[in-house]
Amino acid sequence: MADVRLVFLGAPGSGKGTQAARVSEGLGVPAISTGEMLRDAVAAGSELGERVEQIMAAGALVDDATMAEVIRGRLAQDDTKNGFLLDGYPRTIGQVAILEQILGELGATLTAVVLIDVREEELVRRALERRRDDDTEEVIRTRLDVYREKTEPLVEYYRTKGLLREVDGNESIEEVTAALMGVLPVSA
Ligand code: AMP
Questions:
Q1: In what order do the strands lie in the sheet with 4-9?
Q2: Which of 79, 90, 127, 131 is deepest in the core (most CB within 10 A)?
Q3: For 26-61, what is each residue's pLDDT tens digit?
Q4: 129 C-alpha vs ligand 1 centroid, how far in Å?
C-alpha cells in the first residue's frame, strides 16, 4: 500500500472528485471529500448539517473553524494511517495553516498537491451539462467566483513549496487519470 498524502485542487467542474476517487482506488488510500461529508451531515440532519445547509446551498464556504473540526476528526481515523487523498480541503489559506498543524501533530507531511487544470469555457460547459435541480446559474457562478478568490491562491502557495503537480484536465476521464498517475511521486 502506498504511503502517500495528497491534496487535489481544481475548480468546480474540473473533475477533481471523480479523479480523486479513481486515484484513491489505484493507490489503495482513502479519498476524503469534505463536500461529501457535509452532504452526509445535512442528509442525517445532524447539528453540523443544520449549521452548514444554507451555506452550501448558496455555494459559499463553510467557516474555517467548523471545517477544522471536520477534517481533524476524519484524519484521526485509522484508515488514514498509510495515507489519504484530500478532495475539497484545504480551500482557503487559513485551512492550509490548519492542515499543516494537524499533519505536524500526526508527524506527517504532504507528498504532493495536484492541480487539475481546466479551461474556463470547458468548466462552464460541464457545469451546465451536469447541473443539479437546486443549482441555479447564480450558485454555479458563486462557486466559481469563490474558487478564484479563496482557493486559487493555494496554487501559488504550493508551487512555491515545490509540492505542486499539474495535469491537463480538459481530456477524457481515463486520460486525466493516466496523466495523474504519471505525475505522482509514487506508484500504485
Ligand atoms: P464540494 O463537493 O467539494 O464542491 O463541496 C460542496 C460544498 O461544501 C462547498 O460548496 C462548500 O459549501 C462546502 N465545503 C466543502 N469543503 C469545504 C471546505 N474545505 N471549506 C469550506 N466549505 C467547504
A1: 31-33, 83-87, 4-9, 112-117, 164-168
A2: 90
A3: 999 999 999 999 999 999 999 999 999 999 999 999
A4: 20
